[in-house]
Amino acid sequence: MNKKPHSNNILLNLGIENLNEMQIAAQETILGDNNILLLSPTGSGKTLAFLLPIFEMLKPEMLSVQCLILVPSRELALQIEQVWKKMGTAYKVNVCYGGHSIDTEIKNLSNPPAVLIGTPGRIADHIDRGTFRLDKIETLILDEFDKSLQLGFHEQMSFIIGKLSKLNKRVLVSATSDIEIPKYTRVVNPTILDFIPSEEEVSNLAMKMVVSKEKDKIGSLFNLICSLKSQSALVFCNHRDAAERISDTLNEKGIYATYYHGGMDQDERERALIQFRNGSVSYLITTDLAARGLDIPEMKHVIHYHLPLKEDEFTHRNGRTARMLASGTAYVIAHDSEKKLDYIDYGMPILKVENSTTLPKPPEFQTIYISGGKKNKLNKIDVVGFFSQKGKLEKGDLGLIEVKDFISFAAVKFNKVKDFLHNIKDEKMKGKKFKIEVARKVIKKEEE
Q1: Could you tell me how far CA 438 lies from the centroid of its own chain?
Q2: Beta bridge partners of 429
């Protein structure tokens, strides 16, 4: 293996000019110290902050897992994997999580990655099965470890850490401060890097309240969405069934929405996110699962249909907007009958939306499903070439393309889809006939 490329090459691959203050401090500290607690807000670039020093520490001659990254959700695992791959290092990475084929994972681990990312339950399962060696793992990252604790992964994390006898570096990463570090992590007197801004620091986040006359707040949500000038939004609620009901009702009223929650299978969750990311649906109705660790664009609007019981979840939800130097608005839809929560300032400005009834513009794009992916030797360039030449699409007609292992998705301008599907009906891509059709939209469970 060649000498490690300089970090500048990595930044170039990621499309970043400079690291921010937090990332520079994290890189120096992780390389120099053995126990680190990194606290930084959602969206501040924590993933890169720990991946860069990991890259510096990897030994090319060691053909075994050297760094283990534990995360609370499959989405976060996939997101970290994506950043590592974009970095363009020569080191292999693998992800392991519940809902993913265990046989595929075992096959991947037979040629061990230098970096292994996974959820605690699935990694514990692999350790039980003995599918990868533990004696070369020197670095452990617990990303969003507060969320892992919240989700009850104590037992699995304790089991995993107890098996890592050669660990000499432990990094805990969180967007929330004031967390008690469990003894089993063996993180004692860590170097603390605290980049969570104090409340006094100026925020670009505006807060507004929408008072609902009806106890069922769906009418107020509809009016609020109609007032947003066709700009997309994240709508948070507290329960999975509420997310589905709200999404279905909005669709019936002519608003392009989809839902996202932990009760959906992995493919459904991924498809919902892809359709939201590429602009095929404008409104994502979700539980707190989408409050952090998700690869979705910067939002101008976050709507609290229900308020969470804890203030830190409220903060994480709002962290989806007004990031860095951007500005954004968080809306609270409230009804008189609801219990007042201590952390909410009920004196915030009230937004009147009763008269807003003009539907948002329909999405510009529609998602096209392709029955092949990386494992079928397809890449983005193949998709662009086929859609342009055989599908007769022009440059502006094609939006975001995402190529997964066995399937792919491409956003095509809504008004071009019919002609496109007609043009490619009998055509082959790379000499093979793939199923290419409009991707199903996640609306009602009965459709599954």
Answers
A1: 24
A2: 432
With tokens 């070439």, the residue in question is 385
Helix axes 46-57, 21-32, angle to 10 degrees: 30
| 76, 80, 85, 91 alpha-carbon torsion, rounded to 10° | -130
Residue matched to tokens 């009016």: 223
Question: Tokens 């793992």 sit at which residue?
Answer: 137
Which tens digits make up the pLDDT trace of 90-140? 899 999 999 889 999 999 999 999 999 999 999 999 999 999 999 999 999
pLDDT in tens, 44-93: 889 999 999 999 999 999 999 999 999 999 889 999 999 999 999 989 99
Cα separation, 81 vs 94, in Å, equals 7
Structure tokens at 52: 């860069």
Rounded to whole angstroms, the Cα distance separating 414 from 363 reads: 8
Query: Is there a contact between 349 and 401 (Cβ–Cβ < 8 Å)?
Result: no
pLDDT at 223: 97
Task: Quote the CA–CA distance of 91 and 58 in Å, as a whole number.
Answer: 9
For the chain, the first-to-last Cα distance in angstroms comes to 47
CB neighbours of residue 433 within 10 Å:
11
User: How far apart (Å, rounded) are the C-alpha atoms in residues 147 and 160?
Assistant: 17
412 - beta bridge partners?
366, 398
C-beta separation of 439 from 271 below 8 A: yes
The CATH number corresponding to 7-194 among 3.40.50.300, 1.10.10.10, 3.90.1150.10, 3.40.50.2300 equals: 3.40.50.300
Helix (H) or strand (E) holding 285: strand 283-286
Q: Would you state the structure tokens that stand for residue 230, as one six-digit string?
A: 């066709």
Question: Which pLDDT tens digit goes with each residue over 356-389?
Answer: 999 999 999 999 999 999 889 999 999 999 999 9
Q: Compute the Cα dihedral for 5, 6, 7, 13 and give only its sign.
A: negative
Q: 393, 409 in Cβ contact below 8 A? A: no
Closest to 263 (Cα-Cα) out of 245, 237, 289, 284: 289
**In CATH, what number does 205-334 get?**
3.40.50.300
- The hierarchical CATH code for the domain 365-442 is 3.30.70.330
Task: Give all strands (DSSP E) within 296-435, no chain letters.
Answer: 301-304, 328-334, 365-370, 398-403, 408-413
How many whole angstroms from its chain centre is CA 440?
21
Give the residue extent of every domain in the chain: 7-194, 205-334, 365-442
